[in-house]
Design goal:
- By secondary structure, the protein is of the alpha+beta class.
- The protein has one domain.
- Helix content is about 30%, strand content about 30%.
- It has a 5-stranded antiparallel β-sheet with strand order 3-2-1-5-4, with helices on one face.
């Protein structure tokens, strides 16, 4: 994603970044895979499925709760995900 696209995405209501930091087993994407989540849309993909659904849900919660700046999803079977504003 180029800087212009990211700036436009931020200007439409803020955004949160999601990154897979470790991957193993049946994870559909590798470590370093990312997505940027906005209030009504997102760019990129962690491969879909329950991991992406959970990450989107938590990212949108972080957008609306400024007291939290970072969150980790630790799934022993397949991945660790970092989410931050």
């Amino acid at each position: 994603m180029d800087r212009k696209s990211l700036t436009g995405f931020r200007n439409r209501g803020g955004c949160v970044r999601v990154v897979i930091i470790d991957a193993a087993g049946s994870t559909p994407r590798n470590a370093g895979t990312w997505l940027v989540v906005g209030p009504r849309s997102f760019l990129g993909s962690t491969g879909g499925g329950t991991l992406e659904f959970e990450a989107l849900h938590i990212a949108r919660q972080l957008m609306h709760n400024p007291s939290y700046r970072c969150c980790h999803i630790n799934r022993r079977s397949d991945a660790r995900v970092r989410i931050w504003t």
